[in-house]
């Protein structure tokens, strides 16, 4: 099959004759053989004749009319130069004289809208007043590459730091002049020792070699740390490849039959120490732990899932179809988690106990502070944080009702009661009356009433006399009652003739009207024969006061079936 001739321009396809096609093929063969000069591009560079046509021939949209490989090269972009940056605060030109359509309604500039305006919001914008129109800002665009956009020093002017240097030098010069004036003043007063001390201070602050040495020692001590070796004489820091304090893993056991060390990967999988020792007691337990880190555990779980699925009859194979195996394992894990959560929720709803599963936040369990605390060997605090006082479960420092002290802060010995110190009130939750309350409580207390011994003696004598009079009256009353006991029948007969009945109420005798008592007994019996609704309606209409006759009628008509003495009658006269 003959090769197609190289077409210089693909924009206009011209049909070549057989003779022209033969010449093109002969020219290509000669260029490949090296007998003819190779083709050159627009820059004068030779084009390799062995490049295939589908690479050397430019597509129709990138054809420039001459042989070239420019369409295969990355287009070079001209980046932003170092001296190009935003001109902050620059204006595009003078301000306009009148408001233009599409400008900012607040300041009148065309470079931004009203919502992006940084000027002070005016009461009446430039759109309505046409006054004080601001000039347009100079909007610049720099198409920087990836690094230029993220360069934090892009646009920095080193000359701006000269102001900081000048300020520091001015402060040093002023400090030097103040020290010199103090030295001159001390020298004039004749204090030689003070002059020497001041001179020493000045030397230490301005150019003293001792200060430089102290600073160097300070910084050298700070730089001396693990992983570095410091030469204090030459002040040279040497960085090491590893920490020399730890023994190399291949030097722990020099037996050639021990664990193999791979010098290329610097790995030793097995433990170099012989014997059945615990991994915690070994200096180095091997690098096998790295084989169980990362995604290796997930791979082992996936393989186990595939084996178990095959045992159950499912066609899951991790090597033949890993994607399907991973998707099935992911779906199985999700369903397993949902089922586990569902079982947990159902158990908690049935048996309870969810409050015991809650735990403190991780920030509180593993919290770290910068408080310096020293502990003894027994765990007691020696220095630092003091022991916190136990908080009371009751409310503290709360004084209701205008009180300034708490209940129970005052004890009244005369009344044997507790109260408030601020007002000496003995009533809980009372309103505080201050000093006036103290005076009132003092004047009305028992101690004030019995202030003098004479009053107390007089009161005691009067109480004793009253007691004796009461005893004599009681004895006289008992004697009269005994004398009148024989005249009971005669008085009873007289009361019957007068229509008066007698009933004993405690230690007193009550006189009742017989006619009223008969009517009350009849009404009570009639009421008991009524139904519940009729009795309730009559009770609402009746009066609320109960007379002695009605009370006696209720007692006479009351039936006490459980009382064995209900039908007992006293026949003794």
TrEMBL record:
Q: Example GO biological process term?
A: mRNA splicing, via spliceosome
Q: Can you give the residue ranges of the Pre-mRNA-splicing factor SLU7 domain?
A: 145-409
The name this protein goes by in its record: Pre-mRNA-splicing factor SLU7
Give the Pfam families listed for this entry: Slu7 (PF11708)
Indicate whether Nucleus appears among the record's keywords. yes
Basic and acidic residues bias: start-end ranges: 16-31, 458-530
- Secretion signal: which residues? none
Q: Keywords of this protein's UniProt record, alphabetized?
A: mRNA processing, mRNA splicing, Nucleus, Spliceosome
Q: How does it assemble?
A: Associated with the spliceosome.
């Amino acid at each position: 099959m003959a090769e197609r001739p190289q077409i210089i321009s693909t924009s206009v396809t011209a049909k070549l004759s057989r003779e022209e096609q033969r010449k093109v093929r002969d020219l290509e063969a000669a260029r490949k053989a090296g007998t003819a000069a190779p083709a050159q591009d627009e820059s004068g560079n030779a084009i390799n004749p062995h490049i295939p046509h589908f690479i050397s021939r430019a597509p129709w949209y990138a054809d420039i009319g001459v042989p070239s490989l420019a369409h295969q090269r990355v287009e070079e972009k001209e980046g932003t130069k170092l001296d190009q940056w935003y001109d902050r605060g620059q204006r595009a030109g003078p301000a306009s004289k009148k408001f233009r359509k599409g400008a900012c309604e607040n300041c009148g500039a065309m470079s931004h809208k009203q919502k992006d305006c940084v000027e002070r919001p005016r009461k009446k914008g430039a759109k309505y007043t046409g006054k004080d129109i601001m000039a347009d800002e100079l909007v610049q665009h720099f198409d920087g590459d990836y690094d230029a956009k993220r360069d934090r020093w892009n646009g920095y002017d080193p000359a701006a730091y000269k102001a900081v240097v000048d300020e520091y030098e001015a402060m040093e010069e002023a400090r030097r002049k103040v020290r010199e004036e103090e030295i001159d003043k001390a020298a004039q007063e004749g204090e030689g020792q003070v002059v020497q001390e001041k001179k020493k201070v000045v030397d230490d602050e301005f150019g003293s070699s001792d200060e430089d040495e102290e600073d160097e020692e300070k910084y050298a001590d700070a730089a001396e740390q693990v992983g570095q070796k410091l030469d204090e004489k030459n002040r040279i820091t040497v960085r090491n490849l590893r920490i020399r304090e730890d023994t190399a893993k291949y030097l722990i056991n020099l037996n050639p039959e021990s664990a193999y060390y791979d010098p290329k990967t610097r790995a030793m999988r097995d433990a170099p120490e012989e014997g059945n020792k615990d991994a915690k007691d070994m200096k180095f337990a091997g690098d096998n732990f790295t084989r169980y880190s990362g995604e290796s555990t997930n791979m082992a779980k996936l393989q186990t899932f595939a084996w178990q699925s095959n045992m159950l009859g499912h066609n899951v194979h991790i090597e033949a179809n890993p994607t399907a195996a991973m998707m099935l394992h992911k779906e199985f894990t999700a369903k397993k988690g949902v089922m586990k959560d569902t079982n947990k929720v159902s158990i908690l709803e049935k048996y309870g106990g969810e409050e015991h599963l809650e735990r403190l936040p991780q920030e509180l369990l593993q919290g770290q502070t910068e408080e310096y605390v020293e502990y003894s060997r027994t765990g007691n605090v020696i220095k630092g944080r003091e022991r916190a006082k136990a908080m009371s479960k009751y409310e503290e420092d709360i004084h209701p009702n205008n009180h300034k002290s708490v209940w129970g802060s005052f004890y009244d010995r005369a009344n044997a009661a507790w109260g408030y110190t601020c007002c000496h009130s003995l009533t809980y939750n009372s309103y505080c009356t201050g000093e006036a309350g103290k005076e009132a409580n003092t004047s009305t207390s028992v101690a004030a009433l019995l202030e003098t011994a004479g009053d107390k003696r007089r009161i005691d004598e009067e109480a004793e006399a009253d007691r004796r009079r009461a005893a004599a009256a009681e004895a006289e009353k008992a004697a009269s009652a005994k004398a009148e006991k024989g005249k009971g029948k005669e008085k009873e007969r007289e009361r019957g003739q007068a229509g008066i009945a007698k009933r004993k109420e405690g230690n007193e005798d009550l006189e009742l009207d017989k006619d009223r008592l008969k009517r009350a007994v009849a009404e009570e019996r009639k009421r008991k024969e009524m139904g519940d609704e009729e009795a309730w309606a009559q009770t609402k209409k009746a009066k609320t006061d109960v007379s002695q006759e009605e009370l006696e009628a209720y007692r006479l008509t009351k039936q006490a079936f459980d009382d064995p003495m209900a039908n007992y009658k006293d026949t003794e006269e």
